[in-house]
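Tokens for chain A. Residues wanted.
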């Protein structure tokens, strides 16, 4: 856990922010190479990805505000913490996807093609982004003293409780993201219909995220059904159901053509 990389006078450079920026640039670089391989305009793909990133950042923060609305209504000054927070990833995904679809249609491109080529790198970005969570102590797991248990120090910038072992949700999410990236990238080279890769991402990521959420111990998730399910799990479930329906419809349409 290393929340601050270094200081310049009183100015602090957060490890989470630096990690996030590095991951974005890496994924954009790999995405451009993939776009060239697929004979797509790399500049156009980069532009759409950039719009998606902006939409994703805004969406993540908006969903955080909705999930934590009672806290912000009770103390509006807490809204300043939203600027520093990454937000809720699912909010970023939803608004990011909608932003990409909107601009792809405006430029006369097939949204499924764009979503397919970007889905593997989204999975990679989400996975590698958990390194930032590890540095900041956020998105931590429930109390746990088994294999790979994480112990965080008592630090004013660390969200994880100090002095106890925690389930390594960040590490598990990192590994899952990399594996999902490798699988989707391989599937992209063998896809049989447009939309297959993106919808596979919706189903697989939703399943993995929904399971990992059971071992999350942080409170910034929202709880439903007496605390049994989090907001992210409900969205993950909706994504799996929607992805499954669209997947089989598009595949059936392709088989009939």
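Reply:
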């Amino acid at each position: 856990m290393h929340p601050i990389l270094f200081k310049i006078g009183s100015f602090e450079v957060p490890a989470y922010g630096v990690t996030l920026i590095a991951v974005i640039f890496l994924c954009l670089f790999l995405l451009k190479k993939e776009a060239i391989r697929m004979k797509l305009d790399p500049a156009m793909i980069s532009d759409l990805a950039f719009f998606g990133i902006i939409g994703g950042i805004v969406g993540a923060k908006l969903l955080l505000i909705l999930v934590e609305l009672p806290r912000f209504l009770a103390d509006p000054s807490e809204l300043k913490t939203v600027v520093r927070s990454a937000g809720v990833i699912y909010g970023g995904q939803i608004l990011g996807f909608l932003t990409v679809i909107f601009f792809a249609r405006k430029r006369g491109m097939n949204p499924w093609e764009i979503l397919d080529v970007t889905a593997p790198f989204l999975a990679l970005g989400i996975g590698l982004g958990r390194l930032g969570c590890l540095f900041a102590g956020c998105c931590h797991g429930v109390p746990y003293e088994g294999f790979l248990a994480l112990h965080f120090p008592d630090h004013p910038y660390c969200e994880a409780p100090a002095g106890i072992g925690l389930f390594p949700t960040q590490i598990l999410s990192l590994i899952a993201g990399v594996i999902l990236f490798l699988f989707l990238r391989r599937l992209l080279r063998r896809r049989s219909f447009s939309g297959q890769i993106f919808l596979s991402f919706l189903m697989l990521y939703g399943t993995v995220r929904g399971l990992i959420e059971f071992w999350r111990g942080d409170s910034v998730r929202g709880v439903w059904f007496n605390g049994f399910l989090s907001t992210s799990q409900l969205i993950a479930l909706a994504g799996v159901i929607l992805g499954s329906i669209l997947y089989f419809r598009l595949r059936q349409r392709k088989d009939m053509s």
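The radius of gyration is 19 Å. Residues 4-129+142-256 form one domain.
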